[in-house]
């Protein structure tokens, strides 16, 4: 197995080797282009529209490869939705609310006792805001370090090589570039008949900035974002009801894991109304009233809430870019079609991240950005969307990479499944946090790992061992024969791998 892995590594290194012509081109770029700041009148090698995870990473990588680079960001703060009103602030509140919930419900069992514990919501929000501010400033520092020009404003195409920018200070400038990368991300997907005011009917942005804890919170949509934000406010005292049109929560999740996950959330007092749609919203009084009915039609019910969170997904954001000027069309859900080098239908114009097909995830956008710039620089880039991990940051966390059992079954490939419960993991038992399991799916004939699904505390950290295994076409035996430190939660991954190709030890 070790020799097989070495051969695979050599094959990957060979694939990523830069051809001699491309290498000469790269050397030429390094000697010809400086990474100094460009004014609007100077031509850039790369212009990135959008400073989110895909955009800012692409800009930094381009500069590191010796390309004169400018990044245009309308928000006035780098990091995009993820850093400013998404991934980062939500994780801050998830952590803070979890600390409060633990203090209130489990500390006494560990011998830590106190008379009272209370929520200081302004302080909690302040900690969240400080984390966001520090990280956005950190990206600005990286731009300065790598000599990326940063323009604060909204960009619009004048031609395939010219961008008109309305800056946030009220002026207008034109930026030119040999290669333009569209990295404008996504926005909240609206629902017909529901107007988001970010006060009583909120998107995830408003849910991150509530000034008081709602007594009753209704979440429309049982995806990752809805369940995470529902968890935050549920821990802080809200009665949370999740309304979902589909028959299951998180449809992309492995079915077996999903069912266990829902049961755990229900134990945390989160209520679910599945196969249910919202047909009317009444905000005329102090209480928001939602009229719902079965997805297939039927008797209607009125639900009351102090706050309603609309979390029905996201949609690509390309409004105002002037794509029609270039003749770039989008598909039926607003995505920009690209080739395998991220090129659009117009030469010299590229697109990455949430505006193109693939998972709408920050880390996927980052990989897109690096690969796209590598192609522009004459190198090779690669992103395998089948091996992008996903994480739901509730407690327990749920993380996965590769295919679900349902997907493997549908493909017709013969497979084996190995599972290991966290109840049998010594570290999980010792810290009294043993909900969940590890599930590994492998091809029966070759033992090649096809998918890994983890539900436990810190599953989002454990999943990367599995992502690496899938990236190198490892077998379950490869994972099982890798020594794992004891006692760790990671041992559950090893045990599940052992259960896949043979038998687990500790169950």
Describe this structure as you would to a colleague:
With 507 residues, this protein is an alpha/beta fold. 36% of the residues lie in helices and 23% in strands. It is built from 16 helices and 21 strands. It has helices at 2-16, 20-32, 53-64, 80-85, 87-105, 121-146, 204-207, 224-235, 255-267, 323-326, 362-376, 405-411, 426-430, 459-471, 476-480, 491-501; strands spanning 43-49, 69-73, 149-159, 162-167, 172-182, 186-188, 201-202, 216-220, 239-243, 271-273, 276-282, 288-294, 301-305, 307-310, 314-316, 349-351, 390-392, 397-402, 415-421, 437-443, 449-456. The strands form five sheets. The protein has a five-stranded mixed barrel. Strands 7-14-8-9-10 form a five-stranded parallel β-sheet. β20 and β21 form a beta hairpin. α3 runs parallel beside α6 (121-146), α3 runs parallel beside α11 and α5 packs antiparallel against α6 (121-146). The protein is globular and about 65 Å long. It starts with a helix and ends in a 6-residue tail after the last helix.
